[in-house]
Design a protein that fits this description.
This protein is mostly helical. It has helices at 8-36, 39-46, 50-56, 60-73, 85-92, 96-125, 129-154, 165-175, 178-187, 192-207. Helix 1 crosses helix 2 (39-46) and helix 5 (85-92) packs antiparallel against helix 6 (96-125).
Length: 212
Amino acid sequence: MGRSYKSPLREEQARRTRATVLQAAREVFAERGYAATTVPEIARRAGVAVDTVYAAVGKKPVLFRLLIETAISGTDDVVEAERRDYVVRIRQAGSAREKLAIYASAIRTILERFAPLFVVLRDAAGQDAELDALWREISERRAANMLLFAQDVAATGELRAGVTVEELADVVWSTAAPDFYVLLVTERGWSAERFERWLADSWTRLFVGEVW
């Protein structure tokens, strides 16, 4: 049996092609919505053949799910929550203020990528059972992760008297939601930087105390 041969150059070319396809798909989905987006249009935007899109990523539903997952992870690869860089930094942070600030920064970065896709997913979920299931899955996963985050913040012992883990999780879940970002940044014209500062400041005042 012959040994398989891996070419670093070929692997790098494949990685670049995949990244190009993903970026083109982000743009087309955001512009046209889910139903009106076609793989041939994504291929044209990426400057590749249709078969290349299928080979690099997959069919349209697979491609869209990958865009959602990579937008959430903040990279061009799917990364489980506990292995994401910002989650590691949050857990290593010593104070509640620092944890909240790190998460506000991460949310800003994630939503800059995810918010346009969120709008597509929100608008299409009612007409597509597969996308509706994805919508529910993302929502439930977010809620579970927010509870873990709240527990980590509470473990510092710095929460205001009377603030519960559940309350912290629910407020962070709602204010860090993509639709909240869309309202303030897309519709009201806030900058992403202002949104980040507002999140960190609001969470700190609500749950810990006055900012320094």
